[in-house]
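Before a computer can learn anything about folding, someone has to put a protein's shape into writing. The three-dimensional part falls to structure tokens, numbers that each stand for a local backbone shape. The protein below has been through that process, and both of its lines are reproduced in full.
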Amino acid sequence: MIYYQDPDRKPVYSVEPRQTADGRPFRAVQASEDISFEEKPEGVERTAQADKGRILYYRNPMGLPDTSPVPKKDSMGMDYLPVHEGEASEDGIIKLSPGRIQRSGVRSEPVRRQTIAQTVRVPGVVQLDERRISVVAIRADAFVQEVAPVTTGDRVAKGTRLARIYSPEISTAGAQFITELNAAARGVPEGGARQRLENLGVPAEIIAEIERSRKVPPTVNWTAPRDGIVLERNISDGMKMAAGGSLFRLADISTIWVLADVPERDLAEIRIGAPATVRLRGRPDMSFEGRVGVIYPQIAEATRTAKVRIELANPDGVLLPNMYADVEIGAGDATAELAVPRSAVIDSGTRSVVILDRGKGRFEPREVKLGRRGDGMVAITEGVSESDRVVVSANFLIDAESNLKAALSGFAQPEAKP
């Protein structure tokens, strides 16, 4: 026994034998009895015991796989607990009184089928869109007559004059073009002078001006082929450029890439089209939304990571090449699966257990297999069904109950019955 209680079950207790004012002795409470501070009318306990049916056998009070056909005590002097008819099929069930459940703060939730959003957080670097880079080159030997006041880093619009050049080869082709135009006016078929000018990269507006005025301009204005920023300026006034030489290098940054380094272990969760959020380390107040466009088919040996490309709109030009960024990628697929809150899982490292709420103060431990995790949820691939309820609060207190320890040992060794 562990204490004494008022014979009328009033909330009056004593650690030593004592009597009431009218001389009646306090009732001895055994360690094996369920503690409850709820008052019960006299005779209710006897009626409840009678309603349980006949006793089949007695089980160890500490939950050990040991039973007896007759009442007995264990080595510590604790009474074996009776198993009544109708209770034998509930092996592994832990029973708690309503008062104990309320005091312990036990709370349960249903198992739900839902999509688990897992987020992979990795570093990234802003890079130019390779498809939007242009090299302004000349296809004939030429002299740079004058360079426009455009420098590296300047933003230019399509058609902006970049340089004025003189090319003997272009002038010769222009003169031949005029000759063919005059001959065509007399009915002679036009030759290939126009095509030659186009092959030399002469802008269409210059060709149109030659056709209209029938004059070859001494110099030709070389213009920007697209909107963008100047990455390189390779010419100066008076330079001679060989055919194929690069005058300028331009990049359109209205759309830009972010290359994220995803660890090898997370690659299986990344899919094309997955949503991604990018935050600049230099501008943490700003975020950009995009989607995974390409997963590069190569692992870096030094870092064991793969490049994942995210394409972002950059209308304000805030994203600049080589900026550092923090990237969050939504991983996993859109398939709904059984899931429970992360607090519902008791993970020992070798196995995972959840506590099922069977109702009426009954709880059952269940070993489960876990899937992906995310947003405070854990997917359960085996061990529960959609109709189950799991304990999400105070489950570790239930785990401390001796009956639960017996149920867990029963996974390896079923309880013997007479």
